[in-house]
Amino acid sequence: MEECHLRWDYLGEFLALAVSLDFYGTKNKNNKANVLAEALDDATEKFLNNDRSPSRKVGELDTRGSHFYLALYWAQALANQENDPELQKTFKKVAGALEKSTDQILEELKNAQGASQDIGGYYKPNPELIAKAMRPSAVFNSVLANEL
Hints:
Layout lengths: L10 H17 L3 H19 L13 H18 L4 H27 L15 H8 L3 H10 L1
Helix pairs in contact: 1-2, 2-3, 3-4, 4-6
């Protein structure tokens, strides 16, 4: 049986989300949305500069790993911005926890590769099985649950 590897490049979605947040923030005079948009643009730039798109090979970065890096870079950008102190305070904790756990998270994500995943069907998949397949890092899940 051939090894499985999750690979889908979400770059277009990352860029569209930033534009959508910016539009929403501008239209509704919502500074937090504008800060999120600018930070996401910064994170996407860092994502591209560091070549964090998913690889074609099992054992290398897959889609889940790419999303981890986007989350890390977005949290760092939000932690470093000075336009919204509340977001800055929240995301300093998130960025710190992700930075501290990067190696462990990437190892958990890498270990989830190579085997087929049961998601309970194609047309009506089981949400719990999908979450298990798409969120295989207990450390990453814990950081997100505890820091946000």
